[in-house]
Amino acid sequence: MKKIKMLSRGKTILTCITLFATVSLAVLMYFNRDWTLLWMYHDKSQEITILETQKEFWLPKWFSSRSQDAIVDKKPNTLQLDGWFHASARLDVSTSTYWSAPIVWDGTFKKSVLEDYYSKQKVTVGLTVFAIGKYLDKYLKTFLSSANNFFMVGHKVIFYVLVDDLSKMPWIELGPLRTFKVFQVNKESRWQDISMMRMKTIGDLIQSHIKYEVDFLFCMDVDQVFQGDYGLETLDESVAQLQAWFYKADKEDFTYERRPESTAYIPLMQGDYYYHGAVFGGTPLRVFNLTRECYEGIRRDKERNIEAVWHDESHLNKYYLRNKPTKLLSPEYCWDYKIGKSADIKNVKLSWMPKEYDVVRNNS
């Protein structure tokens, strides 16, 4: 009888210990979701599957994004698309992709809703820009001055400026909540290499600085000028820019890389949109994934003595074909006035500067 009681008591104790361990583990996993992610991390492939979203992410051991919880665990107070975006407000243009990502045009978003939401989140937005060689002399001051006036006004911004000559960094009096961080980078011998190597440089900068400092990040070409409010409606996990010259074109007319030997290759009848390499963004984690995959494609092409037709932009288009962006920006967010007037374009936020390639691409 005593033996039976002891066995019964032992089972009870074992059950309590098991229950306590299970509850403790559940609580720990809930409050430390980063630890949960590390369980699924694979050193060899540097890939991770986040089961709740069924999407693939590279997640190196160092990465602890300020926005990671927003990706992994959708919280009840997440900004809902139908709360700020109204696709039917612009019936003259396409406002949604077939995978339900919004295409943002003037008039499709409620600024007041976005301001209320993001002011409570106290977000910080980063903006990287390269100014190498004659691009530094010709474009950087105009770009930064206009960004100071129009980019994410009223919110904390860090400008990450990458130059090859620190002595030429222009002096600009920044507005409230704005900060410069200037980095010196090597000057490549060819402009094509400058264009392609920026993917590696941006990834390295995210790893060393940006991952600790911002919630969202944009990467832009320097030969552009802001001329309207470039605001919170552009923020999302993965943001792509529609190329102004191709936003109405048929996919067979897109200037994708068509040679199968390139890692940027897209077959003739495939593709969604043609995306502009002059503007891309998202959370630091998503931008890191993009830059690393594009750079890996560039590196592999170089080993095969091939160079994609539009360099890093070709690799960016291949990346977005395989990893659909969560938000697209209309050509109003990167317009070329050489196209002429268009009834679609109501409010230009960012425009191309006159291209003088014969001057700025000459490194002599």
Question: How does this model look, in words?
Answer:
With 364 residues, the chain is an alpha/beta fold. The chain has a single domain, classed as Spore Coat Polysaccharide Biosynthesis Protein SpsA, Chain A, CATH 3.90.550. The protein is 36% helix and 16% strand. It has ten helices and twelve strands. It has helices spanning 2-31, 33-39, 68-72, 81-84, 111-121, 134-150, 191-213, 284-303, 312-322, 357-360, and strands spanning 48-50, 55-57, 103-104, 124-131, 156-163, 178-184, 216-220, 224-226, 238-242, 275-282, 327-329, 350-352. Helix 7 runs antiparallel to helix 8 (284-303) and helix 8 (284-303) crosses helix 9 (312-322). The termini are far apart.
Descriptive keywords:
eight-stranded mixed beta sheet; Spore Coat Polysaccharide Biosynthesis Protein SpsA, Chain A; single chain; 36% helix; 10 helices; alpha/beta; 364 residues; disordered N terminus
Summarize the structure.
The protein is α/β, with parallel strands linked by helices and 364 residues long. The protein has helices at 2-31, 33-39, 68-72, 81-84, 111-121, 134-150, 191-213, 284-303, 312-322, 357-360, and strands at residues 48-50, 55-57, 103-104, 124-131, 156-163, 178-184, 216-220, 224-226, 238-242, 275-282, 327-329, 350-352.
Helices and strands, with pairings:
Elements: H1 2-31, H2 33-39, E1 48-50, E2 55-57, H3 68-72, H4 81-84, E3 103-104, H5 111-121, E4 124-131, H6 134-150, E5 156-163, E6 178-184, H7 191-213, E7 216-220, E8 224-226, E9 238-242, E10 275-282, H8 284-303, H9 312-322, E11 327-329, E12 350-352, H10 357-360
Parallel strand pairs: 3-11, 4-5, 4-7, 5-6, 9-11
Antiparallel strand pairs: 1-2, 7-10, 8-12, 9-10
Helix pairs in contact: 1-2, 7-8, 8-9
